[in-house]
Amino acid sequence: MRDPRIKVNIIGLSLNAHQFDFQIGDSFFEVYGQAFLKSGNFSASVTLDKRETMIEANFHIEGTAQLTCDRSLEVFDHPMTIDKKILFKYGQEEKELSDEIVVITREQPTLDIGQFLYELIAINVPMKRLHPKFRQDEQEESEIRLVYTTTSDESEEEAPTDPRWEKLKKLK
Questions:
Q1: What count of Cα atoms within 13 Å lies in the side-chain half-sphere of residue 73?
Q2: Is the per-residue pLDDT at 1 higher than 50?
């Protein structure tokens, strides 16, 4: 059975830049997970620049994700363009140092590029998923601002005070 994951053989790559193009569809999301995103159509271009001590990966992803509106529960296409650079440095053990730096061993035969593609797409899914017909309303609501004012110290002195407070002030 063939592994449906998107992997690149890095041991066989020469010390040079290599371009890989992938088409991402619904079957991709079935393999890598459907927690954040169930479907979409994307075109991904990955450039792997292999060097002696690391591999620099430049990801360029364009396409649309099918999202469900939080307000109306309508399905809509959300356009996305993602550009990201990740460095794969050679080290003793595999670990992720940060979002941009991943340590891999020299013996590792392949990179699971699909996992990184999925994570980059999932991170760019908006928290508030609004159908485009509601976005104008959302912008107008955010432009309405309430302004709160307080009275200054001078205006408090001019206002008549309660005679009970006057007597208490005299006690000082």
A1: 0
A2: no
Tell me the Cα Rg of the chain: 28
pLDDT of residue 20: 94
Structure tokens that stand for 39 in this block: 């479907």
φ, ψ (nearest 5 deg) of residue 24 = -110, 125
pLDDT value for 152: 59
pLDDT of residue 47: 96
Centre a 10 Å sphere on the Cβ of residue 86 and count the other Cβ atoms it contains: 21
In sequence order, the β-bridge partners of residue 75 are 68
Q: How far is CA 70 from the centre of its chain?
A: 18
**How would you classify the pairing of strands 101-104 and 75-90?**
parallel
Q: Looking up tokens 């005299």, which residue turns up?
A: 170
DSSP state of 160: P
- Six-digit token string for 106: 């020299």
Half-sphere exposure (CA, 13 Å, Cβ side) for 80? 28
Q: Can you spell out the DSSP letters for 45-61?
A: EEEEEE-SSEEEEEEEE
Alpha helices in the chain (DSSP H): 26-32, 113-123, 132-143, 153-158, 163-171
Question: Is residue 68 within 8 Å of 40, Cβ to Cβ?
Answer: no
Q: Is the dihedral of CA 102, 108, 112, 117 positive or negative?
A: positive
